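chain below, 81 aa
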Amino acid sequence: MNATSSKSNGVASLLCTTLGHRYTVTRRVTNHINEYRCKRCGCEMTDNLSGYLERLDAKSRKINEALAQLFEKKAKRMATQ
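prediction:
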């Protein structure tokens, strides 16, 4: 990473700390669970089972992938009935 990108990332994280994050949906896992990314700093979040946002780490990513697969299988099964 060069000096300009790390400097701009620091400014972005400062903006997010001051003004709040600007999340956009990057992936719909199910009807109720999404993955989000901040437009400014690139911070990734996901919905948890309680409906709150939590940081998207490797464990959450695996859980979301498994949920997405189950959701797709269920949707296909419901479509054939």
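Residues 3-80 form one domain. Strands lie at 23-28, 34-38, 44-47, 53-55.
thats it, cya
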